[in-house]
Amino acid sequence: MDKPLLEITGLASGYGDVQVLWSIDLDVKDGEIACIVGSNGAGKTTLLRTISGLVQQSRGQILFDGQDITGVGPNKVLQSGIAHVPEGRRLFKGLTVRDNLLLGAYLRHDRVEIQQDLDYIFDLFPILKERATQDATTLSGGEQQMCAIGRGIMSRPKLLMIDELSLGLAPALVDRLADALVEINRRGQTILLVEQDVMAAFELASRAFVIETGRIATSGTTAALSDDPKIQQAYLGI
To answer: How far is it, in rounded angstroms, from Cα 70 to Cα 176?
Structure first.
C-alpha cells in the first residue's frame, strides 16, 4: 500500500504553557482533497500552523513525502512542498495583486514556468487579471481569498493547505472558490482544507477528520460521516 503524502502521529502542540493539540493522528493521501472540521476554537488552525512550522510541536512526528519534517522552520516546510493559505488571507498591503502572487514563487528560479503558472492563476481567477495592478488588500474578501490561494499555488506545492476557505464570504463566492479547488485538484493538486462550515467541506473533500477540543474525535469518508447521526446533529443541522 502506498504511504500517505502527509502522515502525522501523536502530535501535540500549543502556545507556551497552553496545550491546544493532544496526540493528533492524521494522514493525507496523494491527489486527494481531505478536510479538518470542527467548531471554533477546536484547534484546527493550530494544527495547520504546527504542520507549517509556525507553532513548535511538543510531541509527535510529521512525515511529508517520505521525509521527517518534525520541528523544522516554515522556510524548510515550504521548500519540502507544503504551502499554507492562512486564515484571514494575509496579503501584503502596498503590493499589487501580481506582486502578491509572485511572492508565492520566491523560492523558485524557473522564470518561464513561473510566468506560465501566473497565467494559469489568471485563467483560473479572471478577476485577478483585471485587478493585477491594484493593491491586493483593496480587493473584496472573495477576491482576496482567490489571491491568497493563487499565491499558494505559485509555489508549486505538493500539498496546499487552506485555512477557513469560506470565512466571511457569501455562498456564491464560496461556490466559485470550491469550483476552483476542484479544478486544481483535477490537475493533481493535493489539498488539505480546514473549514468551520462542515457541509461545505464535506461537499469538497473525500475524507474528513473531526477535531474536538484538540483531539481527533472521528474520521472517515465524508460520505460515511454525512450519514452519521452524531455528526448530523452536531455539525450539519439535521
So the answer is: 35
